[in-house]
Amino acid sequence: MEVYQSIESCPELDNSVLTIGSYDGLHRGHHEVVRNVVSHAKALKTQSIVVTFDPHPRHLLDPPADKWPLIMSMDQKIKVLQSLDVDIVLAIPFTKPFSKTTAQLFMDHIILPKLNPKKIIIGYDHHFGFKREGTPAFLSAYCHNHQIDIDIMKPIKDEDIVISSSRIRELILSGFIRRANYELGSIYGIAGRVCQGSGRGKGLNFPTANIQPIEKNQLLPKPGVYFVRGRIIGLSPFGMCNFGIRPTFDEQELVIEVHFFQEQLDDIYDKIIMVEFLERIRDEKKFPSPNKLIEQLKKDKARCLELQAKYE
User: Fold this and answer.
1) Which bin fits 161, alpha (ψ -120 to 50), beta or left (φ > 0)?
2) Rounded to the nearest 10 degrees, how much is the dihedral formed by the CA atoms of 199, 237, 228, 213?
3) Spatial distance between the Cα atoms of 229 and 261, rounded to a whole number of angstroms
4) For the chain: N or C, fewer Cβ within 10 A?
5) Fold classification of 2-154 (topology level)
């Protein structure tokens, strides 16, 4: 898969099948759009393209950015798109000047001359361009006038529930990780750097890796204890994660600390790893003593080891 991070770097194409969107979270509804782009491109013997924006437009248009924490970083989205067999990702830098580009100009000066689409596929609620004027109705008329096929896909539902990024965000914030992962169609995770911790975990005989998210506007889950899987330089160890303030020790700073079950891990200090959140085990709570905390940690680990077979 080719990834272009500017309009100028992307070559002019003879033809293509494409979709356009911010795709925060790249959930099951997005997957359906992208799979249709890929399948139509293969049928037409041309290239499948996802046109997206970096950073997320809301970070610029509706500041501050932390109002809209990201379910997925751009790197994570690119990995998912690669797994869906997309040929090209064009990640257009979203700047203040670019935000003034009308839908008409965007189509006339970027999409048509650069990508020459034979077919465009978008979701039912997609909008783009200045003041979100690039509605499905606008794009349908534009494609009709330029002899481009267009498909506007209906929402993907689970029974009566419409799968959406905003719903998945609320699920993660509420701790419903397993459900969020189902609606995502992939595993919610946080990429972070392993940093120096207090060393308390080692003293409790549960050594931990302290994780500092590398994405500034990363969406964080509800505090608590989670069953997780790491992605560490080719390894995928399971473990348990405490995300919270460690109330037993009267601390206040939110930390992500992971105890991996694989004992023989090479030194991972200062390495960037991915922590995938699989299931939520319990709320964080204050224990009357470190010994009582250790008793609970043993129970948490036993519970996580029971769950591990589901994910191996």
Assistant:
1) beta
2) 60
3) 10
4) C
5) Rossmann fold (3.40.50)
